[in-house]
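Sample A.
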Amino acid sequence: MTKSDYWYTDTESDEVSSLSAAADFLDRATSDSNYWKWSVVALHSAVQGLLTLSLRQGNALLVQKPGRAKEILSALEGGPGRIEPYMDNFMGLYRKAQDPANFLGSQPPVPPDCTLERAVEVFDQWRHEFLHFNSKGWSINIPMLVSRCHSASLVAEHILKSGGILWHSDDLAAESQTQLERVQRALG
């Protein structure tokens, strides 16, 4: 097998490609409302990637479900437990990103804001519903879709502006900002 037989991704490149896909889907949603689903899914992936990047702190323990982080630490210290990671859910990551205790010497990347948090909760629920669509019909107000996507983009913006991400690639850091600007332009 050659290198071209493999696809490589990581959290940074996935976050950037998810923002790019979100911008593309948002542009397409203006003429075909079926792309709203994919806009939400891609933007959710991007924001989750940014939450993860802001919380990784060199060891990624904050990214894990709380019980898993304790188990990983125990296993690393020779005690019982498994080292396999198990990432916390989206809202768990979001709440961790609001807690100043999770960031050394800097402000958290997401400001505590009840209105923003509720909008992001709805956005997260939609992503879940879109990916696990049941046998039903569903009408969603387009301005509400725009509003919730805008809220998610604000979370992305706060994280990128916080300076709390240790990027391994300056190019990806710059591209992330470029793609976020595309998302925000597409949202109007």
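Sample B.
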Amino acid sequence: MTLIEIMVGILVIVIGVLGAMMYRYHSALDARKGDVHANAGRVALLILEGWKGAAGTVDASGNIIYIPSDGIGINNTLIADGSYVTITSNGSDNYTIDLTGGTNTIYYAQLTYNEDVDGDDVDDEGIRKLEVDVTYYGKGSSNKSLPGKTVKVAGYVRTH
């Protein structure tokens, strides 16, 4: 073998190893993105189901009475990947959700409701549409300058 053949052989091996390393890196990155997005869905469903369990409560002024951060059983709830949910209020119907453990992700949730379920500009008596939007930035960081993604879930509840 000549020196040129050995160098070509080493080059082929290096290209193969680098390709395998990049494949593993991107596989792990995509798995993390999938975990963050799946957890956003789990958090949204957790909040929505809690709110539905409280019958979609709204006071006479139209303010949402249900507060997921008040310890009704959502805070410190264990979700699928070993994360614990901690919810803090950011003001009117906006919350920060911190998942400790697992993906260590920060989510932002907004709760809204609509009493005109069928879209005819008349409130539908006895039924209310509840919506929970959960947003995360980047791959779950608290840096809001990164691109954001939102998971939206909705459900219906009888009010009487």
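B remarks: The mean pLDDT is 78. The longest helix spans residues 3-53.
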